[in-house]
Amino acid sequence: xxxxxxxxxxxxxVVFSAKAEVLxxxxxxxNVGDLSSGDYKGMGTDQSNWWWFTTxxxxxxxxxxxxxEGYFTGDSTNAIRFAGSGSRTIRAFNSxxxxxxxVYYSALINVDSIKTTVSKEVLLMMTGSSTESAAKAYFxxxxxxxxxxxxxxxxxxxxxxxxxxxxxxxxxFDSTILVVVRYDFVKGDTNDVVSLWVxxxxxxxxxxxxxxxxxxxxxxxxxxxxxxxxYWMNLRPYGSLTSVIIDxxxxxxxxxxxxxxxxxxxxxxxxxSSLSFGQLYQGTETSKDLIISAVNxxxxxxxxxxxxxxxxSKYSLxxxxxxxxxxxxxxLKANAVWAQVDTIILSSEGVEKKVAxxxxxxxxxxxxxxxxxxxxxxxxxxxxxxxxxxxxxxVTRDTTIDDREIYLQDASGAVKLFDSYGKCGDNxxxxxxxxxxxxNGEEALGILPFYVAQAPTIVSTGNTVEPQEVSLADxxxxxxxxxxxxxxIKGVAFEDAGGSFAVGQYAISQSTEDAKVKVENNNIxxxxxxxxxxxxxxxxxxxxxxxxxxNIDDIIDxxxxxxxxxxxxxxxxxxxxxxxxxxxxxxxxxxxxxxxxVAETSDVLEGKAAFKTTSDVSKGYIYQxxxxxxxxxxxxxxxxxxxxxxxxxxxxxDCFWSASMGGExxxxxAVKQVLVSSKSKYNVVEVKTAxxxxxxxxxxxxxxxxxxxxxxxxxxxxxxxxxxxxxDAQCTMHNGARKIIRNGQMLIIRxxxxxxxxxxxx
Length: 762
Fold this sequence. Notes:
Elements: H1 8-11, E1 22-26, E2 33-34, E3 51-52, E4 60-62, E5 79-82, E6 89-96, E7 102-113, E8 121-127, E9 138-146, E10 152-158, E11 166-167, E12 171-172, E13 176-184, E14 193-198, E15 210-212, E16 230-235, E17 243-252, E18 268-271, E19 275-281, E20 285-295, E21 301-304, E22 310-312, E23 316-317, H2 319-324, E24 326-333, E25 338-348, E26 351-362, E27 365-367, H3 370-379, E28 386-389, E29 393-399, E30 405-410, E31 413-418, E32 432-434, E33 436-440, E34 449-454, E35 457-460, E36 468-469, H4 472-477, H5 479-482, E37 486-494, E38 504-510, E39 513-519, E40 532-539, E41 546-548, E42 555-557, E43 588-589, E44 596-600, E45 610-614, E46 620-627, E47 636-645, E48 651-658, E49 666-675, E50 683-690, E51 697-704, E52 709-720, E53 730-732, E54 738-742, E55 745-750, E56 753-756
Parallel strand pairs: 19-26, 27-28, 31-34, 36-37, 39-41
Antiparallel strand pairs: 1-17, 2-4, 3-6, 4-5, 5-17, 6-16, 7-13, 7-17, 8-9, 8-16, 9-10, 10-11, 10-12, 13-14, 14-15, 18-20, 20-24, 21-23, 21-25, 22-24, 25-26, 28-33, 29-30, 29-32, 30-31, 32-35, 33-34, 37-38, 37-40, 38-39, 40-41, 40-42, 43-46, 44-45, 45-52, 46-51, 47-50, 47-52, 48-49, 48-51, ...
């Protein structure tokens, strides 16, 4: 186990020269990895080493150097990163101390984020000499604090862990700044001064950003002892510091030395960092920006690289562009696989800068569609496969009932994906996607699953897949072909009709075939089980014996009440004496001059109310226009009306089909009938109509004559399911024709002539 050591005895054994203009230069031109050279057991005489001092995560050397115009630019593309709680790491320099002396240290810092709880954490600090315990004597401390307004942080300085802090204004996250800290040895006790500069130039020494000195207004300020001398740099990442990069540390007893190399006459090229694209997948296209700053150039800069997968937005910069600060976009298209490197060389007269580029590209098999995805797994079954679905597909299901399961379907088939780590974000149902990166799983119960390694690109949202209309017999004979695809099975009978759905499976039948409907959606739970229905859902297994609907809209009553408010239960009083479209729920009411419209509750045929009209000088009507686009041509419907003529007036039913909303009547399939009845009782009339070719809408219209006293109740317009029995099973149509099913095809026989459903003579 690594242990904490005091360094009193060891430090006294080290002797260095006392005359050094620059006490430390550190550009971290070291191997990537741990910064320290080992745990502290004696520093020897090598001032170039950083030494691990306490337990914790090692500070890391990373390929991510920082630069700032006007400041020292080193010869390395590396920096160090703090990422959470870590060890204190120290490096010695020649001792400086004594009244009237000063010591400066400077560094480039980039803070990506810190926890909101950070108030006075130590970020970077200096400590005393061999006369002090290393565990206690920290001087000229640079501290960090989260800014409560968000988006940034503050820096401050203190001396010897005192309580008096002076913090700067907010500094934005992810910005590279230059900080300078000075420790002034002042004659007397507890009166040394620590000062801080943020982004100074060589001319700013006289104007610190903040100064920590004797101040009676700050409780606990400067109550700690002064430093006898300064002897080493101490780096200390605290647990709240989640992402901090530090580069180009300098220590000197002269302000001007901090800027040496940044403001001299020699040409220099600086870049923001080396470029690591990390781990990615073959075929990925991405980019990073290389920020270039230069000084004292004699000409422009030429850029070059050798790896064919890397391209640059610019291969030359003028002197003016480079010295003003230039951005070059480095684009990667990962064609080559496994570990890859490249070097971008920036050349100008008398100076050259090299930038390391690295990435690892995992091989991926490109698949054009879902079918190719499944076939590719068979070809690569010995390979722990990664596959990219390049073609577009639609997400038909996205649920977290067991694990996050996503069903994906295109024209070639369907597939089930598991997104166990939530890479896909929000629910994707209806999204058209492409570019999924997937791992293949092991086939179970005939289904080959895939696992999401990388989320797709969303092409569009709000898309639907049209279900394929099949019979149960066809589905069960070809279940593998329909597996996980959306299908529609018309006219199935539910064994538990009249009950209520709960989570579970419900037996259905069609002709001689049986199957089950799997219910797992709360939108279905509690709804009434119909006697017959058209069921839309996923073919859930390789036998075609289970259908999984998405929601209650996928269970369509085969004989629904299509007319709204046929019993007039939701009567609404009109604000107009002539009636209006809101007089009855979903009914349209014509203006009937001198007519009273009321809800009758004592004389009704069904429910609690009927429609009562007492007309005067003009005739009128009530009607509904119904959308029947989901039904096929030739499908039959039944019209029903209950009525009572209290004064023997001639009530009339006038219904018709149309090709568009509010369109003209189609003679074929129209219903026109005068309704005559005894005024002493309700009469009910029922007539049938078939949907004509080209029809989309049906208007249910009741004409009311002048001076009529009429009660209307229990109106209905219902779909009449066409027989699906086997060969030559038939039903009589309203026009005397017969419909039969022969070899799975619906035929119409009229006057001895056979037609198909489209009306073509056979």
